[in-house]
Amino acid sequence: MKKNKIFLVIYDNVKTLLGALFIAILIRSLLFQPFYIPSSSMEPTLLVGDRIFVSKYTYGYSKHSFPFSPNFSNKRFFSKKPERGDLVVFKTPADNRTDYIKRLIGLPDDTIQFINGDLYINDQKTKREPTKINEKIRCGSFLLEANIFIETLPNGITHFVSYKKRGSLQNTKKFKVPKGHFFLLGDNRDCSKDSRYLDSVGYVKELNLVGEAKLIFFSNDTNISSLLKFWNLGDSFRFSRLFNKLK
Questions:
Q1: Does residue 167 form part of some domain?
Q2: How far apart are CA 190 and CA 117, in angstroms?
Q3: 2 assigned to some structural domain
Q4: Which of helix, strand or coil describes residue 161?
Q5: Whole-angstrom Cα distance, residue 71 to residue 66?
Q6: Which of 63, 91, 102, 205 is an active site residue?
Q7: Is residue 8 part of a domain?
Q8: C-alpha distances in Å from residue 211, one per residue of 8, 30, 193
Q9: Which one of the listed residues 39, 41, 62, 65 is annotated catalytic?
Q10: Euclidean distance between CA atoms 211 and 87, whole angstroms
Q11: β-strand partners of 145
Q12: Is 41 a catalytic site residue?
């Protein structure tokens, strides 16, 4: 009798855990997924240590919407087209496993090029205005002097971009975005591995889109303290970034 009671308790607990796990996987796969920002490639928009929520429904669903990208289909369901300027999380074409976040700059059939440090989309110079923001931008383990601009894309979307004051990117070849693909850049233009690097990232297939970054829900400066050293969180926690909407 006692053994049966123990078995029922264990069974109920396992059933509850499995149910909670199933609901968590559904929310993560179909609605929102948290991501951690480990690199400086999107500064000043996203900082190392930011934790963000990404909507999984914005562009519809593919195999990459689910944990471990199960290979059940090479189609996208309930597909919605992304817009220029979106902050996109995607699986890198190199391995179809690693998650990257970049800003969508080029749509299918667009041409993208840097000429004398300026971004050209379809042979039209992209407008950018200097700001009075005076801060250093991270690039790996380095802090670099940078110029911060407000960039305006052809559809009117504005966002911050940063360029090194010394040794900034000047010229690239002209990139022609293939059909069914997108061209994405980091906002930290001189410290980002993105679609300019065809051997590692390159043009991103629509299938590889995971979702759109929507919100910063937590942020701490990992150079000051990690979450494990909770007694230092008062010094590292970035209160001003809490629940900031992303654009």
A1: yes
A2: 10
A3: no
A4: strand
A5: 10
A6: 102
A7: no
A8: 41, 10, 19
A9: 41
A10: 9
A11: 136
A12: yes
Two tokens at 154? 């052809």
Q: Is 199 exposed, middle or buried (0-12, 13-18, 19+ CB in 10 A)?
A: exposed
Q: Is residue 145 part of a domain?
A: yes
Structure tokens at 68: 């471990």
- On whether the CB atoms of residues 167 and 190 are closer than 8 A, the answer is yes
- Confidence check: pLDDT of 2 > 80: no
* Residue spans of beta strands (DSSP E) within the chain: 32-36, 50-55, 87-91, 99-106, 111-115, 118-121, 124-125, 127-130, 136-139, 142-152, 158-164, 175-176, 181-185, 204-205, 209-219, 244-245
12-59 pLDDT tens trace: 677 777 777 777 677 677 789 999 999 999 999 999 999 999 999 999
Domain that holds residue 164: 31-245
Span 138-197, pLDDT tens digits: 998 889 999 999 999 999 999 999 999 988 888 999 999 999 999 999 999 999 999 999
What's the DSSP call for residue 78?
S
Order of strands across the sheet with 118-121? 124-125, 118-121, 111-115, 175-176
Q: Provide the token pair at 87.
A: 């902050």
Domain count, the chain: 1
Residue type at 15 in one-letter notation: K
Q: What is the CATH number of the domain that holds 130?
A: 2.10.109.10
Q: Is 219 a catalytic residue?
A: no
Collapsed DSSP state (helix, strand, coil) of residue 185: strand
